[in-house]
């Protein structure tokens, strides 16, 4: 499955040269890991964000967000945001920071 390279590049630009961030191909797309834990990624034209179980309901109330479900088993703590909903850089930035903040709270891998 191909992924939106333009969206991936926008994420790279936002994350900058942070040495704690790494890229890895996963879920048929690309993931951005913070200290070894996935924070955000791109699958198809959409943004994946790891928000954590406690923040799932609030994340799902935001425009374009839906529960991450690749295998028929929805995963609480992960949301997919429609690419059209992150067309504005400030909205994309909010999602990236939310994913990075959650990943930063996990033990490094």
UniProtKB/TrEMBL annotation:
InterPro entries in alphabetical order: TfoX_N
Statement: the UniProt record of this protein carries the keyword Translocase: no
Pfam family, one: TfoX_N
UniProt GO MF annotations: methyltransferase activity
Record keywords, A-Z: Methyltransferase, Transferase
Database matches in SUPFAM superfamilies: YgaC/TfoX-N like
Every TfoX N-terminal domain range: 19-101
GO process annotations (BP): methylation
Domain of life per record: Bacteria
TM stretches of this protein: none
Designated name of the protein: RNA methyltransferase
Organism: Streptomyces diastatochromogenes
């Amino acid at each position: 499955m191909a992924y939106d390279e333009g969206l991936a590049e926008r994420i790279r630009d936002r994350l900058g040269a942070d040495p704690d961030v790494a890229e890895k191909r996963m879920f048929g797309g690309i993931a951005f890991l913070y200290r070894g834990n996935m924070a955000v990624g791109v699958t198809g034209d959409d943004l994946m964000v790891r928000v954590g179980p406690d923040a799932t309901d609030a994340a799902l109330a935001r425009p374009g967000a839906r529960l991450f479900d690749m295998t028929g088993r929805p995963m609480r703590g992960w949301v997919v945001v429609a690419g059209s909903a992150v067309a504005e850089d400030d909205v994309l930035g909010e999602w990236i920071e939310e994913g990075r903040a959650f990943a930063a709270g996990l033990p490094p891998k």
